[in-house]
Amino acid sequence: MSHGFFFFVIILCGAITFSERGSFLLFQSGKDPHPRLAKALRLVPAAVLPALVTPALFMANGYLDISLSNPRLLAGVVALAIALWKRSVFLTLVSGLTALWVIQWLTV
User: Fold this and answer.
1) CA–CA dist 69, 58 (Å, integer)
2) What are the C-alpha distances in Å from 61 to residues 9, 49, 58, 88?
3) Which residue ranges run through the membrane (predicted)?
4) 59 — phi, psi (to 5°)?
5) Three-state SS for 93?
6) Which tens digit of pLDDT belongs to each residue from 1-19?
7) Domain extents for the chain?
8) What is the Cα–Cα distance from 99 to 106, expressed in whole angstroms?
């Protein structure tokens, strides 16, 4: 694949993404979105976050690793416990990252 074609594809993908996202602003200017659409859009972050986090927790070196030797999985368990207990995004992030760093430091 030539460099010119590669950059053309990248620019085309960016234009398509921009037009998809911009269409909400362009066609909805001055109007409130339909209540069902607004409710669905509020649920998007809750659906996307587990999809991003789950592979990072359960995959190690490209393979499924559900064992006590997986530091990310152990840190995820700590973060989940803090999230359920305190209901704080900040404390969940801090406790999960701290647990990961401590576990990695102890296993080195």
Assistant:
1) 11
2) 30, 21, 10, 30
3) 43-64, 76-103
4) -105, 130
5) helix
6) 688 999 999 999 999 988 8
7) 1-31, 44-107
8) 10
